[in-house]
Design brief:
The complex is a heterodimer. Chain A is globular. Helices cover 79% and strands 0% of the residues of chain A. The relative contact order of chain A is 0.11. The N and C termini of chain A lie far apart (55 Å). In chain B, a hairpin with a 4-residue loop joins strand 1 and strand 2. The chains are: A mainly alpha, B alpha+beta.
């Protein structure tokens, strides 16, 4: 019976069983009870990594917009998406996940700029909601410097400037009673800060060099 | 009331000193109060700050969670980074405050963005770790908890605010390190400066008051001496009162010179009148003597010369002799021999000398002696001569059955002798020329008595004047009181 089983099949089955276990053990993931509680959810999230990356790449393949600002955002997004793919391949799924989240946030920021160009759709949110949202965005932009400091990567510094620039535009739009513009620019700024936060989280999760 | 206004400067100085003492007392009270309440105020201020910071941390945490539902599923390190961004942004507005979150198992998002050294702090302070955890535990039970740790050099205040729904706790902490608190240090400097200023102002006010008081006493004494002795000068000083003293000295010099000039002019004028008077006075007796001798000459021819025929000659010669005696007295320049002595004996002697003449005219002399022990500084011969002049004049003026009042009294630094007669008094014209030499209203007067008397009074540092106060005539001699009695003024 044993002779009938091909040797390579045994090797393949064994490696399929050991591989995920080894990968999981190699990550600085959650510890203790939290690790047990959230294992399933994280597993799902990590399983979706490929889908998310694939979806993003499909969107990159579409014709690029003429707007130079959107081009910059998409360019950064693509860079981080590729970087996430590379990290994924080095078996660091959490870092890859955070980097991919940053790429997605940058893409969403670009989307918000695109919405401004599109014909008016549903009515914009009420002024009170926009005002409250802008206050929150202002608080988020105050965190941008800290996140940039944690990233240790100068290539991300334009994102901080852009976040502030979009926040300013949002405030100016609000002052002109252009609540749609205020909402979209505010969301764009918020997405940029979120991208910085994701990158800072990725940097924090990365193995620290020995002192 | 009058004396209060008289001492106005002293009152002002007293008021200033009292005000300075009050300022000092208030400063001490203020410092005492400030020291007692400083800690309470600082602690209350710190507690308010920590409460506000913890509330804002809590609010931002809830916003963060509600904005991204997947965020809670992130690894602890990732959430720690996110929350540190939050706490950095929040606590940047609260100088000296550090803090973060606690999820029941881990400290998350700790930061201290306003740390003095500027060094990035990412670890929860180990020295206070147990107290922070204890405060967090209390906060988790009570909702809000606060703890104050009093160290040897500082005070640490910790505050925790719990979100009871998810068990998440926001915590904040502040160190109050005594002298390092800029507000406390500045307050100490200001209070010390206030005390120092108050002390300096008190010392300065007291010193100024004492110096001023001494200077005023010095000037007052000097002025008092100047009243009787114009050669006296106030001592020199190097302050503003010294300038006043200098001015007074200059005025005294000018007055002394003016007085000497006036005296010389008066003497020259008097000499002029004297010469005219002498010519007039000598010519009349000489005419009379000439007539008498011519008469005797005729009688000699008739061998009928009698002793009565020579009487007019003798009388006129006697008159000329008396005139010359008065003139010599008027011209006398002998300095008075001034001594401190009682006035009363001299006065009584003069009254007793003129009493027979008064009795002959049935004139009553009433003596009001005042203080019996009153002493003055005078030459007894000069005073006797003056009093005799005045009393004899009074007897003549009072007439038969008249009265004469002699009164001795003290007035501040002077002794006064008033001689009043019940006669008709003086006309305005008489009063104008009263003390001029050779001015007389009497048929046989020389007009030198009052002029000589005034000269004598002035020579003793006093004076002689006529007082037109009541019916009759009143003459007043003023002489300085004895030195020891004068110093009281």
């Amino acid at each position: 019976m044993l002779r009938r089983i091909p040797y390579f099949a045994l090797v393949t089955i064994t490696s399929l069983m050991i591989g995920p276990i080894a990968q999981a053990l190699a990550q600085p993931g959650p510890q203790g009870k939290e690790k047990e509680d959230k294992k399933g959810k994280k597993g799902d999230q990590l399983d979706r990594f490929g889908d998310r990356l694939e979806r993003l790449r499909r969107q990159f393949a579409e014709p690029r917009p003429a707007d130079p600002e959107r081009q910059v955002l998409l360019s950064h997004s693509e860079v981080y998406a590729n970087k996430a793919d590379q990290i994924w391949r080095t078996a660091q799924p959490y870092i890859a996940d955070r980097t991919l989240a940053a790429a997605e946030a940058l893409f969403h920021a670009s989307d918000h700029l695109e919405h401004l160009k599109a014909p008016p759709g549903p009515p914009p949110p009420p002024a009170e909601d926009v005002s409250r949202h802008l206050a929150q965005v202002y608080f988020r932009t105050r965190q941008a410097d800290y996140f940039l400091q944690e990233i240790h990567d100068n290539s991300a510094s334009p994102l901080v400037s852009l976040a502030r620039q979009y926040y300013q535009r949002a405030v100016q739009s609000y002052d002109r009673s252009d609540f749609r513009g205020a909402d979209e620019y505010g969301k764009a700024a918020e997405e940029l800060v979120k991208a910085l936060e994701d990158l800072a989280q990725a940097a924090t999760l990365a193995p620290q060099p020995r002192r | 009331m009058k004396s209060i206004f008289k001492r106005r400067l002293q009152l002002q100085l007293l008021f200033i000193v009292l005000a300075a003492v009050l300022v000092a007392a208030l400063s001490v009270l203020l410092i005492s109060d400030a020291v007692q309440s400083a800690e309470g105020v600082v602690l209350a201020d710190a507690a308010r700050t920590l409460t506000a910071a913890a509330s804002e941390l809590d609010l931002q945490y809830q916003d963060r969670v509600s904005a991204d539902s997947a965020w809670l599923a992130l690894p602890v390190a990732a959430r720690d980074t996110s929350l540190r961004g939050v706490s950095q942004a929040v606590l940047r507005s609260y100088p000296g405050v550090e803090g973060g979150y606690h999820d029941g198992n881990h400290f998350l998002g700790y930061s201290y963005p306003t740390h003095d050294t500027g060094e990035k702090k990412i670890d929860v302070p180990t020295a206070e770790l147990d107290d922070i955890l204890a405060t967090i535990s209390q906060g988790r039970v009570a909702g809000v908890a606060q703890r104050i740790l009093r160290g040897q050099h500082d005070i640490v205040v910790i505050e925790a605010k719990a979100d009871r729904q998810n068990g998440f706790v926001s915590w904040t902490m502040k160190r109050l390190t005594g002298r390092s608190e800029p507000g406390t240090h500045r307050r100490e400097i200001l209070l010390s400066a206030l005390v120092l200023t108050a002390l300096i102002s008190i010392a300065g006010t007291l010193a100024t008051g004492v110096l001023l008081q001494r200077g005023i006493v010095q000037i007052k004494t000097g002025l008092s001496t100047l009243e009787s002795d114009f050669s006296h000068r106030l001592p020199a000083r190097n302050d503003e009162l010294g300038e006043v003293s200098h001015s007074i000295n200059r005025m005294a010099e000018v007055r002394q010179k003016l007085e000497a000039d006036l005296r010389r002019e008066d003497r020259l004028r008097t000499v002029g009148r004297l010469v005219a008077g002498i010519a007039h006075e000598i010519r009349n007796p000489l005419n009379s003597i000439r007539l008498s001798i011519q008469y005797i000459e005729r009688r000699l021819g008739n061998n009928g010369v009698r002793a009565e025929d020579l009487r007019p000659v003798i009388e006129e010669v006697d008159r000329l002799s008396a005139l010359l005696t008065n003139l010599l007295t008027f011209q006398r320049t002998r300095q008075p021999d001034l001594r401190d002595q009682p006035v009363m004996p001299v006065l009584q002697k003069c009254v007793s000398l003129v009493q027979p003449q008064a009795d002959a005219r049935n004139i009553e002399i009433r003596t009001e002696t005042g203080p019996a022990e009153l002493e003055a500084r005078f030459d007894p011969e000069h005073l006797t001569q003056m009093l005799m002049n005045l009393l004899l004049n009074a007897i003549e003026a009072a007439g038969h059955n008249g009265t004469i009042d002699v009164r001795l009294e003290q007035h501040e630094a002077m002794a006064r002798i008033q001689v009043h007669d019940s006669g008709p008094g003086l006309t305005e014209e008489q009063r104008e020329h009263l003390f001029e030499a050779f001015y007389t209203t009497k048929a046989d007067g020389t007009g030198l008595g009052l002029a000589v008397s005034r000269e004598l009074a002035t020579g003793m540092g006093g004076g002689l004047r006529y007082r037109n106060e009541r019916p009759g005539a009143t003459f007043e001699i003023e002489i300085p009181r004895s030195l020891c009695e004068r110093q009281r003024y």
